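Retry 2 of 3 after timeout on previous attempt. Resubmitting structure tokens to design endpoint.
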């Protein structure tokens, strides 16, 4: 969030059709996040509870940004995450599940 200019540059580059591969070696954040997610899942630790007092407008805005970000950067996300484009339908189905899960967690925490 603090590096908004960097994020905007990536989105603009993707939307202009620039080739992802030329930047692949410089984008290490996704690889680190995948490794962290795998370690966390393997640890068996219970995830932290969702934050309380989430404004539903912020929740909807965050989910909207995630969906728009995926739409804008999908061609860059595939190689960064090591996803196979042949699995597009399965991945998109999982995305829908993730969005629903995030919304449910946030809304349940505020009941």
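Retry 2 succeeded. Sequence:
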């Amino acid at each position: 969030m603090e590096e908004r200019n960097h994020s905007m540059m990536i989105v603009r580059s993707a939307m202009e059709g620039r080739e992802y591969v030329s930047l692949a070696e410089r984008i290490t954040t996704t690889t680190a996040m995948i490794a962290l997610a795998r370690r966390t899942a393997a640890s068996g630790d219970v995830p932290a509870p969702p934050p309380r007092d989430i404004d539903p407008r912020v929740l909807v805005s965050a989910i909207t940004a995630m969906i728009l970000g995926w739409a804008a950067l999908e061609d860059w996300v595939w190689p960064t995450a090591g996803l196979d484009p042949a699995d597009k339908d399965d991945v998109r189905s999982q995305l829908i599940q993730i969005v629903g899960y995030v919304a449910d967690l946030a809304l349940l925490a505020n009941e």
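Attempt log closed. The radius of gyration is 16 Å.
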